[in-house]
Specification:
It is built from six helices and twelve strands. It is α+β, with helices and mostly antiparallel strands and about 270 residues long. The protein has two domains: about 5-215, 2-Layer Sandwich (BirA Bifunctional Protein, domain 2); about 220-260, SH3 type barrels (Roll). The strands form two sheets. It has a seven-stranded mixed β-sheet, with helices on both faces. The model has no long low-confidence stretch (mean pLDDT about 95). It binds biotin (BTN).
Length: about 270
């Protein structure tokens, strides 16, 4: 049986993890992203982590809801404060943060549970063709105009979402591993991975090519829903910012947002 999460348990669990500066445990809240964005606007330091055992208004990309029964999952958000770009340099793509976090989840699953997790552009974590988690990256500015990035990570852990009323096939870490998963240990492994990859990013090593190699989407026939337009083609790679490159006959389209579906049966959204 796993030990329960609590404020003290989180503090102990993450005490010696670099990057983590402050932790807040909430038994139930609206959305950890919303709480952390408010804290960030009020000056919370980089490395603040907010975790909830239940969300009443959990959000995913494209305004979708993120739903998980209380106490079954990992639902948390992390705050990054990117340095101001040097004069004339472009702003960092917020997708860089999605990349380091999704690679860290993949690595933790391989190391602790020996299960392969696939990544779907731009933010889905899948096992086979079933979604087991997602990442919601939001960029904003504080009162001084300084940019901050909140990354929310939702992972189905110890419940079976395969029969849930979602419009995509879903699974969980426990389903994939075949046994219950200690949420605290998994959280720690993910956050350690993020800390390490973020240090690399700050040191000038972008994660984009490793992320591209990990994306199941590349090489697949895809259909992209954009406002007022539907594109079909082959996903051939990503550019330096993480935008998806889709070859449609003669053209290559650069996709920065939108709903991308791999054109096979029984695939996650
Ligand atoms: C997606 O699949 O579109 C992203 C899902 C992200 C869900 C997480 S749960 C913790 C954080 N708080 C939220 O409201 N959303 C993210």
């Amino acid at each position: 049986m796993e030990s329960e999460l609590s404020q003290q348990a989180l503090v102990n669990l993450l005490a010696d993890v670099p990057f983590v500066s402050r932790v807040l445990y909430l038994r139930s809240t609206t959305s950890t992203n919303d709480i952390l964005k408010r804290m960030a606007a009020d000056g919370a330091p980089e490395g603040t982590l907010v975790l909830a055992d239940e969300q009443t208004a959990g959000r995913g990309r494209l305004n979708r809801r993120w739903v998980a029964p209380a106490g079954t999952s990992l639902l948390f958000s992390l705050l990054f404060r990117p340095p101001k770009p040097s004069h004339g340099a472009p702003h960092e793509s917020p997708l860089q943060y999605t990349m380091i976090c999704s690679l860290a989840v993949r690595d933790a699953a391989a190391r602790l549970l020996e299960i392969p997790i696939g990544l779907k552009w731009p933010n889905d974590l899948v096992h086979g063709s079933r979604k087991l988690g997602g990442i919601l990256t939001e960029i904003s500015t504080d009162a001084e105009g300084a940019p901050f990035v909140v990354v929310g990570i939702g992972l189905n852990v110890n419940w079976d979402p395969s029969a849930a009323d979602f419009d995509y096939p879903a699974t969980s870490l426990a389903n994939a591993a075949g046994h219950p998963v200690e949420r605290g240990a998994f959280l720690r492994a993910v956050v350690e991975g993020i800390a390490c990859r973020y240090a690399e990013l700050r040191a000038g090593k972008p994660p984009v090519r490793e992320w591209e190699a990990a994306l199941d989407t590349i090489g697949q026939d895809v259909m992209v829903e954009l406002p007022g337009e539907r594109i079909t083609g082959v996903a051939v790679g990503v550019d330096a910012d993480g935008a998806l490159l889709v070859r449609t006959g003669e053209d290559t389209r650069r996709i920065v947002a939108g709903d991308v579906r791999v054109r096979t049966r029984d695939s996650a959204p």
